[in-house]
Amino acid sequence: MPLRILLLEDSDDDADLTLRELRKEGLEFTVQRVETESDYRRQLLEFAPDLILADYSLPHYDGMSALALAREICPAAPFIFVSGTMGEETAIEALHHGATDYVLKQRMGRLGAAVRRALRDAELVRERHLADEILHETQANLARAESFSHIMVVHLALDGRWLKVPPLLGQLLGFTEAELLAGRIQDHLHPDDAAADWQQCQRLLQSDLKTLSSDKRFRNKDGQFLWFETNVTLVLNSQGEPERFLVYLRDLTEKKQLEAQFLRSQRLESVGRLASGIAHDLNNILAPILMAVPMLREEMTSDGNRRLLNTMESSAIRGASIVKQVLAFGRGIEGQRAPLQPRHLLKEMAQIIKATFPKSITLRVISPHDLWTVIGDATQLHQVLMNLCVNARDAMPAGGTLILAAGNIRLDETFTGKLQRLQPGPYVLLTVTDTGTGISPENLDRIFEPFFTTKSIDLGTGLGLSTVFGIVKSHGGVVLVASTLGQGTQFSIYLPATDATPLQPSAAEPAEIPKGNGELILVVDDEESIRAMTVRGLQAHGYRTLAARDGAAAMTLYASHRNDIQVVVTDLMMPIMDGVATIRALRKLSPEVKIIVTSGLSSHSMSTEAADLDVDAFLLKPYTITSLLNSLQDVLHRRGA
After folding, report:
1. 147 half-sphere exposure, CB direction, 13 A CA radius
2. Residue 122: CB partners within 8 Å, gap ≥ 6?
3. From CA 226, how far away is CA 218, in angstroms rounded?
């Protein structure tokens, strides 16, 4: 079969010279010549070359980029630079990055020999890989045959010394047979299980029991624990005296991990329901503080008093942020979901890291240009990456390497079958990897629990990873973690991919606070403090107001002033007559009435009902008076005042 050669060359004369040299060598080949990056990429995929010859300097493309792309798409194909401009240092760098050889155009006579040597070496590599694959497949078949029954049989002396160990157990634990036979089973058990194991053996020796069963944790060579179901039987000699123990082992590690994941999800969902229940009240408490601070600031002249107000405002904002984080991990805050390109998130995160992280931390960003799109909330996913990167920074106090990576991956049923919630298909994989202190095995199962933290109180609330878990879950994905003490940690985030086109960012909101022109606004809220602050804030910015504590009182006021009221601002959760019922009654009385809904709980079912009733705007508590004024202006001018 003719050799398939892909030639990246912009000069007709140089291309002819190259082909003449190859024919002089007696090579039989077909060639595809390209000059541009797009043609080069297409031919790498479609032509699948056996050999790549490339000029180093091209008008619209460079040789090192061509080399990187070839190593990505056709890693087995030899890559030879044919150039008239490569210096010795450049050539060494090219070889270091995966080039097979280089030939200067001034010495084209060595091209044929270089090609034959490259093809011969590539064939040897292929043969070696094939041999390795056959060997690995044979070993895997032997291991599968050995573990087909899922049972491993171990012989133990009465004092716990290993007498006979199946190869599969050694592979699972990472020890050789000789290493195991030199010790005792107690050396490899969890401390708690070792004591229970000794008691179990004593019961067999001192009673008429034949077999005892239990689940035990064995420590592997990396210090991590694997779960095994154990069935221990006492073997007697010909005189009826105890001789040894026969232990039947079955690997339960994956089952235990799935159980732990399920229980963790249940715990998080329970806390999420609790968080949702208290979020409304917390946001109602914070709302009047955030509305009052700007108004008080206008009246304060003392710098000391202004500093106190700033402290109050920052504390209220921090409290609101914690409530949002709790909701994010519990149910997932319903943000603005749209097609977005994760590569841009990594770029923004890299800019923040370079500007704020210690210089002792080296950042690497790996993101392909053909990265798929996901449907998501850019702010929330940015928060996910920020939390993980800050944790990585804190895990490397003496410096290290932080790697942000993204890639396309197709998950099959073999992978998704082990994880609840995921379906087979295309995903974008985001990974955050550090070379820090790592996470201990006992903490690894707890890191996503709300309020669990290994940091001091002033450095962490224990909500960061809980927030990550909730946001990723609400985006239809999962987050997995792998960590080794002293070596580092990697978080892997799988997000469903889409073929939708990312939307362009919307224009920023105007910075100037809009004023009213005497419009009459009806404010409906059962919280006295929120109602009072809202009324005061609106009046201070040019509006007239009416106020009601529930839907029934609001309907009475609206019936009396329906021709003057421009907008109704109503809470959703109120006694006697809630927000949804109030909206329905207002629509019946006046179908064109303009309505702004406020709520302290974005995921509450009434929020969905209110949206179905075609309200004009929705504000999540705690909101500032500026947010309310902007919404009022938008509503008043959208359909005409």
Report:
1. 15
2. 50, 76, 77, 78, 100
3. 5
Q: Say what the pTM is.
A: 0.39
Cα separation of 556 and 244, whole Å?
Answer: 89
Extract the tokens encoding 444: 């690894």
Strand stretches in 281-346, DSSP E: 338-340
Residue-level pLDDT at 149 = 47
pLDDT per residue over 263-314, tens digit each?
655 655 666 666 666 666 777 778 788 888 777 777 777 777 777 777 777 7
Query: Would you say 29 and 2 are in contact if contact means Cβ atoms under 8 Å apart?
Result: yes
Using CA atoms, how far residue 170 sits from 165, 197, 224, 494, in Å, is 7, 20, 14, 32
Length of the chain: 641
Whole-angstrom distance, CA of residue 309 vs CA of residue 317: 12
156 touches 185 (CB < 8 A):
yes
Largest CA distance in the chain: 106
Q: Is omega for the bond preceding 622 within 30 degrees of 0, making it cis? A: yes
Please tell me the distance from the alpha carbon of residue 638 to that of residue 641, in angstroms, as a whole number.
8
User: Tokens in use for 473?
Assistant: 């879950």
Nearest 10 degrees: Cα torsion 407, 410, 416, 418: -60
Return the closest-CA partner of residue 619 out of 555, 565, 572, 577: 572
Using CA atoms, how far apart are residues 68 and 62, in angstroms rounded to an integer?
A: 10
Cα–Cα distance list, 409 to 18, 69, 304, 580 (Å): 39, 18, 56, 44
Asked if residues 244 and 158 have their Cβ atoms less than 8 Å apart, the reply is yes
| Interval 348-355 mean pLDDT | 87
Q: Does residue 509 surpass a pLDDT of 50?
A: no
SS3 content of the chain, % helix, strand, coil (to 5): 45, 25, 30
Q: Which residues contact 388 (CB under 8 A, 6 or more apart)?
A: 432, 468, 491
Spatial separation of the C-alpha atoms in residues 116 and 385, rounded to whole Å: 49
CB 51 within 8 A of CB 80: yes
Check if the beta carbon of residue 564 is closer than 8 Å to that of residue 537: no
Task: Please check whether residue 22 is in contact with residue 111, taking contact to mean a CB–CB distance below 8 angstroms.
Answer: yes
* Beta-bridge partner residues of 568: 522, 595
> DSSP secondary-structure letter at 633?
H
Closest CA to 21 of 90, 91, 109: 109
Our measurement of the distance from residue 467's CA atom to the centroid of its chain's CA atoms, rounded to an integer in Å, reads 11
User: Looking up tokens 């419009």, which residue turns up?
Assistant: 519
pLDDT in tens, 62-98: 889 999 999 999 998 999 999 887 877 888 888 888 8
Residue-wise pLDDT tens digits, 423-457: 888 999 999 999 999 988 878 777 777 656 665 44
Distance in angstroms (rounded) separating the CA atoms of residues 416 and 422: 6
Residue 630 has pLDDT above 80, yes or no: yes
